């Protein structure tokens, strides 16, 4: 799993296939170690967790919306895939041991550095443009994967005090993203690192900024086409594509206001555009799709999940709390920008991020060694142990 950046750079399907195989191996190893008791026992105990109820409500409401979606067969297939991936992720997280070896956690920065080095070389020499498949994979997925996996890599390196290694990997990542002209990825990386630093200095402010930027923005999304239209017209003119998207969104809100409660059904927005049910100029991204597909009840479950994650981060160690909030912001930015949807590679990447964060949390220092007397009679400094 730590070599995920290398798989995604050269194969579209390799990342989606190899990651679940690695998760299944972890689950089987845990079952053998515990004589079949885990991870099922841990999964049952976690159902009462504060973050579990919004997820269960979201999954249940999305399944119920299949009744009135106009593309029931296609949406049902996507829903089954989502359920299978969610169960696999849940079981994998419960299969992780209580303590993670340091050598295993070092593999993520190594894999990310190797991938960034290859990507930087290909972009710098222009060889990336000679292979259409590699070029498409790199330009579409590598920037997103780089930013998402930079967060757990940064968490591990900074929590271990390896500042020089972290600065080197960050510099290579920024240079690679700039050469690829991945504007959204640069913004997401900058914001996530800013939230990370703010959490270490002012955790209360960081939680407030994250809450306003995610939960409040999602709740106010139906008002955005009316609030942003004057500003967009002033900045870009009335003929800009952004203005067309806002007009199309506003007409949908005015045409079917009651649909804001129930939505049109799970996984319907893109197919509705192709079928001509909605205007092709309608926007993409989380803010439009969550309201159009699942309505207020789906939005409510998502907002409750944001709030639960932010509250959970409040009780974690500084670096773990910073990684949770910065991951939430980075994923939210990509989702709003339309670069992330219910595709298999994006859901797999989110699962991989969560697995790494849990593994890093299990690899942090938990206790202090007792102070012992040195031969010279002076007490030695206590060192933390896993």
Summarize the structure.
With 386 residues, the chain is mainly α.
- Beta content: under 5%
Provide the low-confidence segments as ranges: 367-374, 381-386
What is the radius of gyration?
22 Å
In round numbers, the mean pLDDT is 82
**Structural class estimated from helices and strands:** mainly alpha
Number of domains: 1
Sketch the topology as an H/E string, one letter per element.
HHHHHHHHHHHHHHHHHHHHEE
Q: Strands of the biggest beta sheet: in what spatial order?
A: 1-2
Distance between the termini: 22 Å
Helical content (DSSP H or I, runs of 4+): over 70%
Overview of the structural elements:
The chain is mostly helical. It has one domain. It contains 20 helices and two strands. Strands 1-2 form a two-stranded antiparallel ribbon. The chain is globular. The chain starts with a helix and ends with a strand. The C terminus is likely disordered.
